[in-house]
């Protein structure tokens, strides 16, 4: 149920040496961010931390206490470098237990796939008191404990878990946005952007320059929780750009 | 000059609402991470923060004091939402000044491109005491003050600035890595990975599962600062996988 008068916030901890080494390009930040927008929850901070327990504990504790929701991605698989469950349990001050329902899910899933080994049973471990987040793709569930939601690192599987969570978290009015863009140097419209934003206190305008096909340009993203205010701000911006003689494309380029 | 006995560390602050809204997929984390690897500097943490000064200040101060180097990306352009210079100056407790050399660079660059406007002059502002990081692509320089290195948010321009910094930062022995991969369920080789890692104390093995063409698989990344130790660990892993009957590809898949 949306509570429009309150802003709901979230943070994300991305756990994994592979992101910090540059080997893997993270896809979960954008995925979690976009999903949260639709739930009416604002992603306020992301931290990417290595597979070192004390670092994960620090990040989890700094962020779970300052946001409505905390998400983590990565480190919940079957191998020795998957230490997120231990780290979150340590952060919360609870022991790690084998979750009976997770064990049953894994036993079912692996019944026709070679059986449950000790390594696979690692994926049934949760901090004590946790609920499970279903994962139709690979059996091993995500974990929800308090306001902490632990998702897989593999983007396809994380997406399944987000899907399972859709509609279960209380949020506020979604932040709406519209984009106007063009092959416009942002330095030439800086005054227009500032003035239009100042005239619409319930809206923010972000300017995102790019360099494409040998030309510079920018997209201007107008954001608001109120659809009417958003419309009015977009209209004012388009009028001001047209008056100053700029070519632009509603919807962005 | 590499100092092999000391580990040099860095952190990165990605500044930008566009990443946190999910609108833009960040490319700078992987880019900065890969570049740092080659410099022999380990990226230990990334924080993505919104365009809110106090949030940037907090992240900058938490990370610049705990790592050898801090990098920032984003928020150094000409528009009202570019507040990174003000935030870093506030974090360092120094005023913002117009940097004479940056002003000259911008005047030269814009001499044939419509002249320097007030908005464009915003890009000559730096925290007092800063040096510039050249940027051949768009004129506006990056900023280096103390151990803080401020790069553009546009990935092409950030790449130019990293290029200009290549070889100027003291680092240690680069972390070397090799990958072995296959359509192998990581849960089936968890014991092998753990045992091989334990037998090679100077190496770490990371396991990175994927789901591709309807099949699950994993890449195993072996990391070490010592080329001989790395070789020996890779050989042990390949022998153990072969002995257990797994198909794998050196170099990863």
From TrEMBL, chains A, B:
All copies of domain MoaB/Mog, residue ranges: 11-173
Gene3D superfamilies: MoaB/Mog-like domain (3.40.980.10)
A Pfam family assignment: MoCF_biosynth
The species this protein was found in: Croceibacterium selenioxidans
Name of the protein described by the UniProt record: Competence/damage-inducible protein A
InterPro entries: CinA, FLAD1_M, MoaB/Mog-like_dom_sf, MoaB/Mog_dom
Domain of life: Bacteria
């Amino acid at each position: 149920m949306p509570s429009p008068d309150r802003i709901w916030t979230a943070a994300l901890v991305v756990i994994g040496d592979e992101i910090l080494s540059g080997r893997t390009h993270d896809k979960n930040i954008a995925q979690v961010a976009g999903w949260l927008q639709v739930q009416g929850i604002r992603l306020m901070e992301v931290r990417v931390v290595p597979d070192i327990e004390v670092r994960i504990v620090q990040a989890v504790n700094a962020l779970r206490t300052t946001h409505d929701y905390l998400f983590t991605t990565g480190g919940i698989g079957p191998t020795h470098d998957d230490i997120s469950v231990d780290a979150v349990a340590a952060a919360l001050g609870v022991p790690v237990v084998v979750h009976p329902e997770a064990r049953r899910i894994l036993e079912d899933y692996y019944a026709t796939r070679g059986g449950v080994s000790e390594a696979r049973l690692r994926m049934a471990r949760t901090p004590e008191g946790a609920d499970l987040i279903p994962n139709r793709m690979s059996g091993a569930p995500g974990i929800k404990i308090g306001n902490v939601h632990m998702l897989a690192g593999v983007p396809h599987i994380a997406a399944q878990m987000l899907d399972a969570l859709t509609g279960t978290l209380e949020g506020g009015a979604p932040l709406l946005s519209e984009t106007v863009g063009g092959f416009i140097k942002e330095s030439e419209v800086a005054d227009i952007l500032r003035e239009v934003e100042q005239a619409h206190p319930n809206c923010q305008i972000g300017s995102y320059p790019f360099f494409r096909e040998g030309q510079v340009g920018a997209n201007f993203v107008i954001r608001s929780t109120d659809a009417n205010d958003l419309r009015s701000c977009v209209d004012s911006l388009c009028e001001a750009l047209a008056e100053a003689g700029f070519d632009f494309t509603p919807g962005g380029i």
